[in-house]
Amino acid sequence: MAEELHKKLQQEIENFQTLQKQYQKTLTVRQQLGGQLFENETVKSELDLVKKDQEVFKLIGPVLIKQDNEEALQNVNKRMEYIKGELKRIDDTITDMEKKQDSQRDVLNKLQQQYQKAQIGAAQKG
Amino acid sequence: MSAKENHEGMQEIDITKLNLQQLSQLKQRLEQELSMYQNSLQSLKVAQTRYQNSKESIEKITPECNGKEILVPLTGSIYVPGKIADANSVIIDIGTGYYVQKDLDSAKEYMKRRVQFVTEQMEKIQAMGQEKSSIRDAVMEVMDGKIQQEIGLQKAALAKAAAAGKA
């Protein structure tokens, strides 16, 4: 009985750890996306400040290509839109994962209590 | 106590009402956040110095530099001689692969803006870090109290059990 419980407990702990690892990974991705969005925002605010006589270039591979300011702005806006979508998607995943972790934690707690009870019971018998 | 509430720090939580496990979770999270702040501060410091250096470089360029010779780095270790064709403007990397040609004054303005922005962020993070570390201290204090209490209870229970065993 105790043996079985012990195995199950270990299994659930492993499950919990994988969940936590996944959660951490998702958090890092979120952070990266947040950083990208922020960078794009600063670029946009800079492009907004560009005057007519100032030229805008885009780095493509090792060369700078002259680009229309309007086009650059559109590009940045499009990219921001995309990143915002991704952020929303990942935020949903994160709340989902938090829920999963909480429920897994409950399962673990219950098992642990059961296990402790079983051990105490065994000790008393002995 | 859901993770979100405490992550955003919006919800008021009475830490004396949390149990030990919750407290240690909270402490762990606070410590993670604190080390994150430390890292951010460091990268901000690097960025600040870079912008400052760029600004100083721009200040060295004057219209008299036109046509003067300069060594152009091809790689980190190879230089070729060249001539400054246009000392009135520089091209600035504004991020995500975009570059803008600016005259010296607006380039200087740009660098100033960036330095100011970065400094502001650093101040913000510092304030946030201080707040978090004082919260962490409070949490640790409560934890200490709870642990002492727990030990006391256990001792009492043991003494009771021993007394019952003797009887």
What radius of gyration of chain B results from the CA coordinates? 29 Å
Q: How are the strands ordered across the major sheet of chain B?
A: 1-2
Average pLDDT metric of chain B: 89
Number of strands of chain B: 4
What's the N-to-C terminus distance of chain A? 15 Å
Helix fraction of chain B by DSSP (H/I, runs of at least 4): 55-70%
Residues in β-strands, percent of chain B: 5-15%
Parts with pLDDT < 50 across at least 5 consecutive residues of chain B: 1-9
Number of strands of chain A: 2
Q: What is the strand arrangement across the widest sheet of chain A?
A: 1-2
Backbone structural class of chain B: alpha+beta
The quaternary organization reads as heterodimer
Percent helix of chain A: over 70%
Q: Give the count of helical stretches of chain B.
A: 3
Helix- and strand-based class of chain A? Answer: mainly alpha
Could you describe the 3D structure shown?
The complex is a heterodimer of chains A (126) and B (167). Chain A is mainly alpha-helical. Chain A is 83% helix and 8% strand. Chain A is built from two helices and two strands, in the order H-E-E-H. The longest helix of chain A is centred in the last third of the chain and has 57 residues, at 69-125. The mean pLDDT of chain A is 92. Chain B starts with a helix and ends with a helix. Chain B contains three helices and four strands. In chain B, a hairpin with a 5-residue loop joins strand 1 and strand 2 (79-83). In chain B, helix 2 (20-60) packs antiparallel against helix 3 (104-166). In chain B, the strands form two sheets. Chain B has a two-stranded antiparallel sheet with strand order 1-2. Chain B is rod-shaped, with a radius of gyration of 29 Å. Chain B is an alpha+beta fold and 167 residues long. Chain B has helices spanning 3-8, 20-60, 104-166; strands at residues 69-73, 79-83, 89-95, 98-103. The chains are: A mainly alpha (126), B alpha+beta (167). The A-B interface holds A 36, 39-40, 42-43, 46-47, 50, 54-60, 64, 67, 72, 76, 79, 95, 98, 101-102 and B 2-4, 91, 93-103, 106, 110.
